[in-house]
Design a protein that fits this description.
The structure is a homodimer.
Chain A: H1 2-27, H2 34-41, H3 45-51, H4 55-77, H5 87-99, H6 102-114, H7 118-143, H8 150-169, H9 176-196
Chain lengths: ~200, ~200
């Protein structure tokens, strides 16, 4: 009987984490409490608190779980990326897709709340640092470039900064039509820059 | 006796608007009420409410006043921009300075709150639209490029998106050292793109 119970526990946990991300993105930081998330996930408050005693436990676990899931997906999908021509734009498009998705909108609510809450800021900073480094490494790998070249590093960082700005521009309105042209042009410029560093 | 009273009234108004921006950037949307801002500005609550009957009046006026002041300063400072070589990087650096300043941090709090508040979203959207168009026109003017060329338009938009992303990266930590290199390289790439469109 242990196995099914462990499975149920894992399913409950995952539903809570997914509901947390949706709740943050839709309702913001202040409205995302363990009780609200439990209701949204169809889980009792007691069961939710068994998994996540505090709101910070829940929100940290949700951001980490969703980020790691996203990165795992990105690694698996990388086999479909075109080789040679078209690879740079495909990588940039996928990257920008991550930054305009629900996870980014959820993280933005937490980061913004942290700007005016020193205690929250302390536990958000290591997450931000880890997410930033992992995303950068992933982009370098997928582009197939030399991550030790400082010019390449800065070009990839600019791409992540651009993606973050595009994510912000998509917060209140659907910005996808305008964004497509910006992404297309930047990918072409990035491709020229990276090509010049003899990939 | 009318003149001095009008002056006092104008000073009071300006102090309230500046305190609103500081309060939003430091304490966030929820904590920025007419009462808190009045205290911060050293103005009586009654006087504050005389100028701004509602919190939305106060915050809209503050964002508009600070944005217009910033843009006016940018226009005045444009005479100091170098002509020819070095102009692109100087324009991009100033632009990024705006997006890493207090006004951006204040606006970010309002935009983020608007993501989970449909009524707030309705009055933020026209502001976001106006600010975006004005900043784009200003950047096109300062770069001295042809704003009717779609390639130029998208390159300038990407630069504003990058600046927004860099502003977000600067929210919780001082990101200025990393940013300097990203901006330098971006400006060099932008300069090549714009140069190729025969400025």
């Amino acid at each position: 009987m242990r196995e099914p119970q462990q499975d149920r526990s894992r399913v409950t946990r995952r539903r809570l984490l997914e509901a947390t991300i949706d709740c943050l993105a839709e309702n913001g930081w202040a409205a995302t409490t363990v009780g609200v998330v439990a209701t949204r996930a169809g889980v009792s408050r007691g069961a939710a608190q068994h998994h996540f005693p505090t709101r910070e436990d829940l929100i940290t676990a949700a951001l980490e779980y969703m980020f790691d899931t996203r990165m795992q997906m990105a690694r698996e999908e990388a086999v479909d990326l075109p080789v040679g021509e078209g690879r740079t734009i495909a990588v940039v498009e996928r990257l920008v897709d991550y930054y305009t998705g629900t996870l980014f909108k959820a993280a933005l609510q937490v980061w913004t709340a942290a700007a005016s809450d020193p205690a929250l800021r302390e536990w958000v900073l290591p997450l931000e640092d880890r997410f930033g480094r992992t995303a950068h490494r992933m982009a370098v790998d997928q582009l197939g470039v030399d991550g030790s070249d400082p010019v390449v590093r800065a070009a990839v960082q600019a791409t992540l900064d651009l993606a973050r700005g595009l994510g912000l521009a998509d917060l209140l309105t659907d910005d996808s039509a305008r964004r497509a042209e910006v992404v297309r042009q930047w990918a072409s410029s990035l491709d020229a820059q990276l090509g010049a560093r003899s990939r």
